[in-house]
Amino acid sequence: MAGSKLQQEETASRWQWMLFVVVVPSLFAAFFLLLIAKAAGIDAVKAKQWVDSVPFVAEWFDWKKKEKTLANTIETQQQTIKRQNQTIAKQKKQIEQLKSELAAKDEEIARLSTQQQLPTQQEKGGGQASAVDVISMYDAMSDKQAAAILAKLPEDEALEVLSRLDSDKAAAILEQMPAEQAANLLSSLHKWAGREEGAE
């Protein structure tokens, strides 16, 4: 019983010590400083300006404002990056589309130029020189490119070109074509050769 009473007295004396040694002197010092400031004619607004002009103190007071400004800047930059990424994706898509259109145009140009240079059935007698030029063009092309062009030509024109090419070159071109189309051309080429032999 005496121990608990002693403990209560110690706790009370601790609070009294805090009150009389820390709280009361702090209040007295604050009141005394305000009194001196008032007597010296220091204005509260000027005091705030003075605090703002002190380097580390001003930064300590403004850290929340700076943090908010920085967060806004980061968010704005992230939105800008997102918009730029979307623009880049759209431009890549447009580039791919333009590439495919360009490839289609190249094939069309090659097909049209081949059609113009191949002799027609009516010009066979006088067009031997241009037919030789066309055949030499196909000889100079890669097998894959020649196969792509021949695949677009009408069958009779493709057969005429294949019949004039060297057999190794013709075989290499047929290898690059789809199997069904190559089989049809090979069958027609065989019939074509049979007709020419019969005509002789």
From the N-terminal CA to the C-terminal CA, the straight-line distance is: 140 Å
Number of DSSP helices?
Answer: 8
Give the overall shape: rod-shaped
What kind of sheet is the major sheet? none
Listing every helix as H and every strand as E from the N terminus to the C terminus, the arrangement reads HHHHHHHH
- What's the alpha carbon Rg, rounded to whole Å? 48 Å
Question: What portion of the residues fall into strands of 2 or more residues?
Answer: under 5%
Helix content: over 70%
Structural class: mainly alpha
Q: What does the average pLDDT come to?
A: 76
Number of strands: 0
Q: Which blocks of ≥5 consecutive residues have pLDDT under 50? A: 124-129
Keywords: Cell projection, Cilium, Coiled coil, Flagellum, Membrane, Transmembrane, Transmembrane helix
Domain Magnesium transporter MgtE intracellular: 136-190
Transmembrane segments: 15-36
Protein name: Flagellar protein FlbB
